[in-house]
Amino acid sequence: MTATFSRVFEIHGRDFANAGRASTEIKDLLKGMGINSSFVRRVAIASYEAEMNVVMYARHAMAVLTVTPGAVTLEFADEGPGIPDIDEAMQEGFSTATPEMREMGFGAGMGLPNIRRNSDGFRLDSMVGHGTRLSIRVDVR
Fold first, then answer.
1. Does residue 75 come out as left (phi exceeding 0), alpha (psi in the -120 to 50 range) or beta?
2. CB proximity list for 45: less than 8 A, separation 6 or greater
3. Is the Cα dihedral 105, 130, 113, 109 positive or negative?
4. CA-CA distances (angstroms) from residue 93 to 21, 23, 70, 83, 117?
5. Gyration radius of the chain over CA positions
6. What is residue 42's three-state secondary structure?
7. pLDDT at residue 86 above 90?
8. 18-24 long-range contacts, Cβ below 8 Å, gap at least 24?
9. How many CA atoms lie within 13 Å of 55's alpha carbon, on the beta-carbon side?
10. Phi/psi of residue 113, nearest 5 degrees
11. Pick from 57, 66, 55: nearest CA to 29
12. Would the pTM of this model clear 0.85, i.e. be above it?
Protein backbone atom coordinates (compact mmCIF):
# COMPACT_ATOMS: atom_id res chain seq x y z
CA MET A 1 0.00 0.00 0.00
CA THR A 2 1.52 3.32 -1.00
CA ALA A 3 1.22 6.43 1.11
CA THR A 4 -1.25 9.01 -0.13
CA PHE A 5 -0.34 11.70 2.38
CA SER A 6 2.47 12.30 4.86
CA ARG A 7 3.33 15.15 7.18
CA VAL A 8 5.96 15.74 9.85
CA PHE A 9 5.27 17.58 13.10
CA GLU A 10 7.86 18.90 15.52
CA ILE A 11 7.01 18.74 19.22
CA HIS A 12 8.96 20.48 21.97
CA GLY A 13 9.17 19.20 25.51
CA ARG A 14 7.77 21.36 28.31
CA ASP A 15 5.99 23.58 25.76
CA PHE A 16 2.60 23.40 27.45
CA ALA A 17 1.43 26.56 25.66
CA ASN A 18 1.45 24.63 22.36
CA ALA A 19 0.59 21.21 23.76
CA GLY A 20 -2.03 19.52 21.61
CA ARG A 21 -1.37 21.64 18.53
CA ALA A 22 -0.02 18.75 16.41
CA SER A 23 -2.95 16.52 17.43
CA THR A 24 -5.43 19.23 16.51
CA GLU A 25 -3.78 19.67 13.11
CA ILE A 26 -3.89 15.91 12.55
CA LYS A 27 -7.58 15.81 13.45
CA ASP A 28 -8.35 18.75 11.16
CA LEU A 29 -6.38 17.22 8.27
CA LEU A 30 -8.25 13.92 8.57
CA LYS A 31 -11.62 15.67 8.81
CA GLY A 32 -10.71 17.71 5.74
CA MET A 33 -10.08 14.46 3.87
CA GLY A 34 -13.65 13.41 4.62
CA ILE A 35 -12.63 10.55 6.89
CA ASN A 36 -15.30 9.06 9.16
CA SER A 37 -15.61 10.96 12.46
CA SER A 38 -15.40 7.88 14.72
CA PHE A 39 -12.15 6.91 12.99
CA VAL A 40 -10.81 10.46 13.32
CA ARG A 41 -11.70 10.39 17.02
CA ARG A 42 -9.57 7.26 17.61
CA VAL A 43 -6.60 8.81 15.81
CA ALA A 44 -7.06 12.11 17.67
CA ILE A 45 -7.08 10.41 21.08
CA ALA A 46 -3.98 8.36 20.31
CA SER A 47 -2.08 11.32 18.84
CA TYR A 48 -3.01 13.65 21.71
CA GLU A 49 -1.89 11.17 24.37
CA ALA A 50 1.40 10.56 22.56
CA GLU A 51 1.97 14.28 22.05
CA MET A 52 1.33 15.02 25.72
CA ASN A 53 3.84 12.35 26.76
CA VAL A 54 6.43 14.14 24.63
CA VAL A 55 5.55 17.54 26.08
CA MET A 56 5.64 16.23 29.65
CA TYR A 57 8.75 14.04 29.52
CA ALA A 58 10.94 14.49 26.43
CA ARG A 59 13.13 17.34 25.22
CA HIS A 60 12.07 17.13 21.59
CA ALA A 61 10.29 14.80 19.17
CA MET A 62 9.33 14.37 15.58
CA ALA A 63 5.95 12.87 14.77
CA VAL A 64 5.20 11.54 11.30
CA LEU A 65 1.62 11.15 10.12
CA THR A 66 1.06 8.85 7.15
CA VAL A 67 -2.37 8.34 5.62
CA THR A 68 -2.94 5.44 3.21
CA PRO A 69 -6.18 4.01 1.83
CA GLY A 70 -6.17 1.35 4.56
CA ALA A 71 -4.75 3.03 7.65
CA VAL A 72 -3.36 6.04 9.41
CA THR A 73 0.01 5.60 11.06
CA LEU A 74 1.76 7.86 13.52
CA GLU A 75 5.44 7.51 14.36
CA PHE A 76 6.78 9.44 17.34
CA ALA A 77 10.53 9.52 17.97
CA ASP A 78 11.70 11.54 20.94
CA GLU A 79 14.88 12.63 22.62
CA GLY A 80 14.16 12.08 26.25
CA PRO A 81 14.86 10.07 29.37
CA GLY A 82 13.39 6.84 28.02
CA ILE A 83 11.05 4.50 29.85
CA PRO A 84 12.78 2.21 32.36
CA ASP A 85 9.95 -0.37 32.59
CA ILE A 86 7.54 -0.44 29.65
CA ASP A 87 5.31 -3.12 31.23
CA GLU A 88 4.84 -0.92 34.29
CA ALA A 89 4.25 2.19 32.16
CA MET A 90 1.49 0.34 30.27
CA GLN A 91 -0.52 -0.27 33.45
CA GLU A 92 -3.58 1.94 33.84
CA GLY A 93 -3.01 4.45 36.61
CA PHE A 94 0.80 4.25 36.59
CA SER A 95 2.31 7.71 36.28
CA THR A 96 5.61 9.46 36.85
CA ALA A 97 4.06 12.91 36.51
CA THR A 98 5.47 15.64 38.70
CA PRO A 99 3.28 17.59 41.12
CA GLU A 100 3.38 20.53 38.66
CA MET A 101 2.07 18.33 35.84
CA ARG A 102 -0.71 17.03 38.07
CA GLU A 103 -1.68 20.60 38.98
CA MET A 104 -2.19 21.21 35.24
CA GLY A 105 -4.51 18.19 35.07
CA PHE A 106 -2.07 15.66 33.60
CA GLY A 107 -0.59 12.47 34.98
CA ALA A 108 -3.58 10.18 35.47
CA GLY A 109 -1.59 7.28 34.05
CA MET A 110 -3.98 6.64 31.17
CA GLY A 111 -1.91 7.93 28.23
CA LEU A 112 -0.24 4.75 26.98
CA PRO A 113 -3.26 2.53 27.77
CA ASN A 114 -5.51 4.98 25.86
CA ILE A 115 -3.15 4.92 22.89
CA ARG A 116 -3.16 1.13 22.82
CA ARG A 117 -6.96 0.98 23.23
CA ASN A 118 -7.52 3.34 20.28
CA SER A 119 -5.05 1.72 17.90
CA ASP A 120 -4.98 -1.43 15.81
CA GLY A 121 -1.20 -1.55 15.85
CA PHE A 122 0.97 -0.40 18.73
CA ARG A 123 4.71 -0.66 19.24
CA LEU A 124 6.73 1.04 21.95
CA ASP A 125 10.52 0.89 22.13
CA SER A 126 12.58 2.86 24.59
CA MET A 127 16.18 3.17 25.71
CA VAL A 128 16.85 4.81 29.05
CA GLY A 129 18.89 7.97 28.60
CA HIS A 130 18.26 8.14 24.84
CA GLY A 131 14.56 8.31 24.08
CA THR A 132 11.44 6.53 22.97
CA ARG A 133 9.91 5.43 19.67
CA LEU A 134 6.18 4.88 19.44
CA SER A 135 4.37 3.51 16.39
CA ILE A 136 0.60 3.70 16.20
CA ARG A 137 -1.61 2.32 13.43
CA VAL A 138 -5.37 2.81 13.12
CA ASP A 139 -6.95 0.72 10.39
CA VAL A 140 -9.76 2.01 8.23
CA ARG A 141 -12.76 -0.24 8.82
1. beta
2. 114, 115, 118
3. negative
4. 25, 23, 32, 16, 14
5. 14
6. helix
7. yes
8. 19/51, 19/52, 19/55, 20/48, 20/51, 20/52, 22/47, 22/51, 22/63, 23/47, 23/48, 23/51
9. 21
10. -60, -35
11. 66
12. yes
Longest dimension (CA), the chain: 45
Q: How many CB atoms lie within 10 A of CB 41?
A: 14
As a whole number of angstroms, the distance between CA 64 and CA 34 comes to 20
Helical ranges in the chain per DSSP H: 21-32, 37-57, 86-89, 99-103, 111-117
CATH of 5-139, one of 2.40.50.140, 1.20.140.10, 3.30.565.10, 2.170.120.12: 3.30.565.10
Pairing relation of β-strands 60-67 and 5-12?
Answer: antiparallel
Give yes or no for residue 3 having a pLDDT over 70: no
Is residue 106 over pLDDT 70? yes
- How far is 30 from 47, CA to CA, in rounded Å? 12
Do residues 59 and 80 lie in contact, with contact meaning Cβ atoms separated by under 8 Å? Answer: yes
The residue-averaged pLDDT of 24-53 equals 97
